[in-house]
């Protein structure tokens, strides 16, 4: 099997040496790379424009349109270039020399449309649980270290996910209204509703870090994001409640845990007033059906 694979990376003020290292890793493993920049600083966009690498396409957006819009712009460029499959990455992703080869083994089966790696925490080294959302909304978890072979689940994060072009043609692109947070979850559950599972390939692994840091409290590990980023997480959980392909129990759980996590952040992080303000703003906008970027109104 020989697939024309294009990597899509959405950037926003990336650390250039780290991004360049990722590009070097990828260009040795895929047919092409598309970088979509979400209106970074003029200095960063200038540096991106000077990356004269073979098989690299850089597309700079005029405004920050969110992760979904950035990924969709990258997908359209990749499709124009004739790719068979697309693999997403974050701007700070790190992969090994055999990552794409190991991951693409999962697509040897023509019935498999989406494959994803396992993740380990960049600083602490623990494996992130793989979560399978059942049609009832209940969750089934797998730990990376316990897998003896590939396993099919319903949701995964977009970074490192390798997807056949035909899957996008069947279920559509990413939902740009969400801007950021739950973008990959919503799309994966759209796939699940049409009988398309995500096959986890344990031999393909990546390091990952969720949030700037994390807090541990009463058995919870709470990723620490900025108050503004928390706004999107909380608001979009309410939008999940409206979507027929998202199990209601799962959406309710996200709303409830959004509140619990916010209380912990308000209690233990700096700027508690900001976390409180953005929480109530997110709830109001979520209930009112407000989508897109944050607007102070």
TrEMBL record:
Q: InterPro entries, from UniProt?
A: Glyco_trans_2-like (IPR001173), Nucleotide-diphossugar_trans (IPR029044), RhaTrfase (IPR006446)
* Organism this protein belongs to: Halopseudomonas laoshanensis
What the record says about family reads: Belongs to the glycosyltransferase 2 family.
* Protein name per UniProt: Glycosyltransferase family 2 protein
Q: Name one GO molecular function term.
A: glycosyltransferase activity
Q: Tell me which residues make up the Glycosyltransferase 2-like domain.
A: 7-171
Q: Where are the transmembrane segments?
A: none
Q: Which SUPFAM superfamilies match?
A: Nucleotide-diphospho-sugar transferases
Q: Which UniProt keywords apply?
A: Glycosyltransferase, Transferase
